[in-house]
Amino acid sequence: MSDSKPIDPLWAWGEDADRPRLLHSMIRVRDVDTSLRFYCDGLGMTVLDRHDFEAGRFSLLFLSYAGYRDGPAAIELTYNWDQGSDYTHGSGYGHIAIGVPDVPAMWNRLAEFGGRQGTAPKAMMEGAPQLAFVYDPDGYAIELIQIHRAPVAAA
SS3 letters for 117-154? Predict the structure, then answer.
């Protein structure tokens, strides 16, 4: 749509949702090129974004069959530059990401349902959506990502 508002890349998952939805599942990979060959060439997925973090020495690659907002959940491939090849399935699994309209409220609410609070709600950079981590009853990490942006007050 040419008349639609451009998508803010910091809010790629959405900014006006009113219900939760599955966003992505993250796995750690040993070799980016080998993984891209499998997921993109083999399975037909597309790389949505790649972010390389020199200071943290890791890369994040998001793959899906469609865009962030209009398709099925994505896969996040995390490549830790100095890790080597000693991942196991147990240490290779990262988290499941769920988009929610209100991260702080959901982070607090999940304790009532057997969850354990992890990382408190925060934005990774100015203007980005909040995120937080909770752990399910079995200890699996669940990342909550804000998908409803509050209107900006006029100055």
Answer: ECCCCEECCCCCCEEEEEECCCCCEEEEEECECCCCCC
